[in-house]
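Hey, resending since the last one bounced:
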Amino acid sequence: MIEAEALRERAPAKVNLFLHVGQKRADGYHALQSLVAFTEIGDQLAFLPERELEFSICGQFASALQPDGTNLVVKAARALLAHAKTSWGALISLRKNLPVASGIGGGSADAAAALRGLSRFWGLPLSPQEMHAIAARLGSDVPVCLAGGTQWMEGRGEELTALDPLPAIAMVLVNPGVSVPTPNVFAALEQRHGTDLPPPPKFADAGGLITYLKDTCNDLEAPARTIAPQIDEVLSLLVAQPGVRLARMSGSGATCFALFNTDAEASEAADAIGGLRPGWWVVATRIAS
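The structure tokens again:
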């Protein structure tokens, strides 16, 4: 349970609006290029004073995680303490609203929120460069989740260029409740678009964003669909909804998203799909401004 007086930090869901893959690098990672946005929904962290470092999890997807040192939130806290060369404590509570290992940066978003929240909670005067370096050591998606906003992501995910905010647009997120291991997706990758695109200009409206995205794709979608055929069903249901402008998988899956003309159309689509597949995670949201 998250107490009212706690310092709070949001951990919004990350969406790869497109994701192109380049060649495998010498360090074993693949070169990536992606337009990344964040949504109005996500997990929430809270911090209260405590002598030791303690961690608890509640929420819809709490049972999928262990509240121990394997969690990225705890790793982020310990990384901050190691950098500051201190041993302060805190009671960290995570409300887990996002599905786990689902291509929308749940664990990475939580780690980034822990870095932001604990740096304020402990009063650590860390520079953006120091925070970025700590985030990069925690995982490829943690730096972009730490930065937030609209980001042009390159390298293995650590090279970021902040872009102008995207136009307001409604979105539906759907996860069919299947696990798609990221290494397996990359191992099955056959076609890749490379990483030669320049960052896009500011989009005047949602129509301009949609037009731009239609000339891109998610290179990981095809291999993920071979591993988890449920993704095919998710995308088929999304493209069949009235008002849908674009449907695509995010990250390495299995969460997919669809962009809609209006909030009402997104809500109706989420209700329709949720009614057909009550065991799936289905939410209507928006790209956060």
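The chain has two domains: 7-163, 170-286.

Sorry for the duplicate.
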